[in-house]
Structure formats: structure tokens, C-alpha cells
Amino acid sequence: MKENLKPFLIKLVAITIAVIVVINIVFNVLLGERLEKIDKIISLSDSKTRSDIKQKIRSEISKGLEKDKIFSDEDKVLFYKLFKKIQKEFTDLDKNNIE
Length: 99
Prior knowledge:
- The structure is a single chain.
- By secondary structure, this protein is mainly alpha-helical.
- It has a domain at 2-69.
- It is 81% helix and 0% strand.
- The protein has three helices and no strands.
């Protein structure tokens, strides 16, 4: 009985350690970076985070302005339809409710 128990326990410990290592690697590779980004978004109350995000937005806008075309033709059509819809809603606005 003892001869069968020793290899079983050794295999059990080895498999347990292997499972823990695999779970740790999967968590760090797949989820670690994403959780870090989510934490950064959630911590918008921190002034450093806000200034980092503001700087990132400014740099992306600068990159976009250097391009010849900012929007694709498909995006232009979508924005135009959105603009027309918003414009129609403003013309349908009841002037008495504004003041």
C-alpha cells in the first residue's frame, strides 16, 4: 500500500505545482496588462492620470492633423448622417421650452 501511495503523492504535488504555474502565466500574460489599463481608466480622479490621458489625446490629435485624410469615406458618411439627424432634432425643438 505504501509503495503505491508515494508515487501518487509525488505526481499529485507535481501536477498541483504545474497547474499553479500555468494559471499564473496565463493571468500575467493575458489579463495583467488589461487590468492595468482598466485600473488607469478607473483612477481618473488622480491628477497625474488625467494629465497623462490629456497628453495622449493631444498627441493623437496632432498625429491625425498631420494626415491628408482624417476620416475614411465610410466614416464621413456616418458622421454626415449623424450631423443631419442632430440638425433635424434642433429644428424640431420647441422654442418655448428653451427659455
